[in-house]
Amino acid sequence: MIIEEAKARLVQLDEDLELFDEMGIPAGQKLNGKLNSIRQAIGDLKALLNQQSFSSIEDEVQFFKYVKPQFIARQIFAFDVFTIEAGKPVDTAEVIKNYFEQELKYMRKFYDQNKFMHQYYLLDGTELDVLLFVRNAQTPSSLIPDVQGFDPEFSTAGDYVFARFIANERVQEFLTDHLYSPQEAETLSGMTKRRVTLKWTGDAINLAEMAYGIWLTGQVNHGNAGIAEIMGWLEVNFQVNIGRPFRRWQSISSRKRVSQVKYLDQMKAAILKRLDDENA
Q: pTM, whole model, 2 decimals?
């Protein structure tokens, strides 16, 4: 019951936030409006927990692992985007591009500082859920960063860092949109007219599998390229909309384990078949 009511409240919150995006009001006023709406929604969540109890440990884990972080992520995202926009230099396109690239590096730094938790998040691990997403669990401090304002009745060891990961993915998408706009893609170094145009005509989820394979094996920029950057580059160069990285990862991880990376398995089989044919 708690989970269903919380999810319904999240839908309502998103509608409120969309209204602020549609209003032609100053950025500071828009931020204040959004943060007030988010605080009210989080307050409603707290009241919900005070009024009801979880029916099981599994429900508590689901709430603090998947539901509450969505609310906190929206708070982080709203503030981060405002801060990035406010700090954007009034300068040449190249200087502004460098500014956004530095912001992306800042995102990656957080992942580097929380590598274990980030992998747990990406792989949707479950082994430590009782330690990370149940209140008052005795969690080793080495696993998680310190969180200010920790409320033991409304917080667990891992819910904030998961919220930060969700928010960071959205911020990365925001930054990538600025770095790889359609106009920029057409004029980057004047290369577009000189190179062969390629268009991805397969399923977008297949390209998402490739993107995660490239990212997780650290094959681009010495392993320093983020998943949002890689997907953004693939989208521009293959003229395709892959979608949000986290959503795509959810689609992949929800598949049956025997064929979770169907396209990569298909690629491997095709390469091995060619090798076998050549060696026959």
A: 0.65
Parent domain of 201: 190-279
Same domain? For 175 and 194 the reply is: no
Percent of the chain with pLDDT over 90: 34
How many domains would you assign to the chain?
Answer: 2
The token duo for 152 is 């033991």
Residues with Cβ within 8 Å of residue 124, at least 6 apart in sequence = 250, 253
pLDDT beyond 50 at 234: yes
pLDDT in tens, 63-96: 999 999 999 999 999 999 999 999 999 888 888 8
d(CA 183, CA 279): 47
Question: 151 lies in a domain?
Answer: yes
208 shares a domain with 250: yes
